[in-house]
């Protein structure tokens, strides 16, 4: 008889974990309060860019992100095949752009340590920079070029993950409003707002920004907080922007459907997901310094999602010490899309009782208690 796994949360981490567990012949049920991928997952820009985003320290979090990037080529093929759906996966490469000579030194320092991890990092200036990205502002004096960095179209990726899960026999139960963990120490019993009960052998907590609600249940501190990320998009001709362009102010990501995604403006607003004029203006005020043609353009689409941030920036991934049948996989902040393959595989290995993936030592769920 197959071991029954309950997954609490149907965001990208919950769906990716369900997909991987179903491939390992577990009986998987995903429990989602609203709709799958409805918050941070579907609202993400879909960047797979650990070298651009993590420039200071090659810590365990960087290793998680780098390993996940390098899993993506095969992972996205497997998801597409199982889902019988396509989604954009672009190995566009990225440019981390700077405006001042003083910032070039920091790029060189970054290049030095990142090359130890196999980064094909090239510091480019002048004509070479304009050849790669002709529309860049003349104010940009240099950029680090990372040909390995990529991006996906997040809404379609999440839809494909859901379809792949369903095709492989995963049960997905949506619109539950709330799910209470009633019994968990020796056996599992979860109950939805409408009274439906769910039992299983193991529980994987993928509740994202709502994970803190489980503190009293499990008796540990779960400092995961919602950070509102606001994003806008412009209509641009395909190929006008060719690479992810990352700066200290934010990023711009060209999509194959002729849109340029600009993110992200972040603020603390509880669980509010409304788009604000102030939040979007933070983006529109600086993006013209990257691409001057944006001065005359107005975003055609704006949206926001909640990002589950922890106090130390590391996600919570691992078994509970007092109940090894309960596994946490939450608090991925703005890296849920990037970290979905490595998290799914790491959690499945834990449930298979394989040796724990080394960087997880920094992600213990009880570390704040």
UniProtKB/TrEMBL annotation:
Record keywords: Oxidoreductase, Thiamine biosynthesis
Ranges in coiled-coil conformation: none
Catalytic activity, reaction form: glycine + O2 + H2O = glyoxylate + H2O2 + NH4(+)
UniProt domain FAD dependent oxidoreductase: residue ranges: 4-350
Protein name (record): glycine oxidase
Domain of life: Bacteria
Entry's EC annotation: 1.4.3.19
Gene3D superfamilies: D-Amino Acid Oxidase, subunit A, domain 2, FAD/NAD(P)-binding domain
Annotated GO MF terms: flavin adenine dinucleotide binding; glycine oxidase activity
NCBIfam families (UniProt xref): thiamin_ThiO (TIGR02352)
GO CC terms of this entry: cytoplasm
Stored PANTHER family: GLYCINE OXIDASE (PTHR13847:SF289), SARCOSINE DEHYDROGENASE-RELATED (PTHR13847)
BP term (GO), one: thiamine biosynthetic process
Pathway: Cofactor biosynthesis; thiamine diphosphate biosynthesis
InterPro entries to which the protein is assigned, alphabetical: FAD-dep_OxRdtase, FAD/NAD-bd_sf, Gly_oxidase_ThiO
Group of enzyme by EC: oxidoreductase
């Amino acid at each position: 008889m197959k071991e029954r796994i309950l997954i609490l949360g149907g965001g990208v981490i919950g769906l990716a974990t369900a997909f991987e567990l179903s491939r390992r012949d577990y009986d998987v049920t995903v429990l989602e309060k609203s709709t799958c991928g409805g918050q941070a997952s579907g609202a993400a820009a879909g960047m797979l860019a650990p070298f651009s985003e993590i420039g200071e320290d090659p810590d365990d979090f960087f290793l998680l992100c780098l390993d996940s990037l390098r899993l993506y080529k095969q992972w996205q093929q497997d998801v597409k095949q199982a889902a019988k759906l396509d989604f954009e996966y672009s190995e566009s490469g990225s440019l981390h752009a700077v405006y001042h000579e003083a910032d070039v030194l920091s790029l060189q320092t970054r290049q030095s340590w990142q090359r130890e991890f196999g980064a094909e990092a090239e510091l480019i200036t002048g004509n070479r920079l304009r050849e790669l990205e002709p529309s860049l502002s003349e104010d940009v004096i240099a950029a680090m070029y990372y040909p390995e960095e990529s991006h996906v179209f997040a809404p379609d990726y999440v839809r494909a993950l859901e379809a792949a899960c369903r095709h492989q026999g995963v049960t997905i139960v949506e619109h539950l409003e709330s799910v209470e963990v009633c019994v968990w120490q020796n056996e599992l019993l979860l109950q939805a707002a409408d009274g439906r009960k769910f039992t299983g052998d193991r529980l994987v907590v993928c509740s994202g920004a709502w994970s803190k609600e489980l503190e009293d249940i499990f008796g540990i501190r779960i400092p995961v907080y919602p950070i509102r990320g606001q994003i806008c998009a412009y209509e641009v001709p395909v190929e006008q922007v060719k690479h992810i362009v990352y700066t200290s102010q934010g990023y711009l990501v060209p999509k194959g459907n002729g849109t340029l995604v600009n993110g992200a403006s972040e603020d603390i607003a509880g669980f509010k997901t409304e788009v604000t004029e102030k939040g979007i203006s933070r983006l529109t005020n600086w993006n013209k310094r990257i691409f001057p043609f944006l001065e005359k353009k107005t975003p055609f689409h704006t949206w926001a999602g909640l990002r589950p941030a922890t106090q130390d920036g590391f996600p919570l991934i691992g078994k509970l010490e007092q109940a090894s049948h309960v596994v946490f996989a939450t608090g991925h902040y703005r890296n849920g899309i990037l970290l979905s393959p490595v998290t799914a595989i790491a959690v499945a290995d834990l449930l298979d009782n394989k040796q724990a993936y080394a960087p997880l030592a920094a992600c213990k769920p009880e570390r704040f208690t």
